Amino acid sequence: MGANRAGLALAAATALTALLLSFAVRTALPSASPITEFLIVVLGCASVYGVGLWRIPGPHQRWWRKEGALND
Fold this sequence. Notes:
72 residues; single chain; mainly alpha
C-alpha cells in the first residue's frame, strides 16, 4: 500500500481540483458554455496532474539521470 499512496494522493488532488473548478466556473461564470467549463476543468486537472508527477519521487523521475539513458 505504501507504493500506492502517492498515486492515490495525486488522484484525490486531481478529483478535488475538478470539483472545485467546476463549482467555481458555475458560480463565477454562470453564462459560460459547457465547453468552456470543460476546458477550464481539464486544463486545471492537467496542471495538477503534471505538477504531481513532477513532485512525486519514483523511478519515473530517475530515467534521465542515468548515465547514457538517452543514448540507449
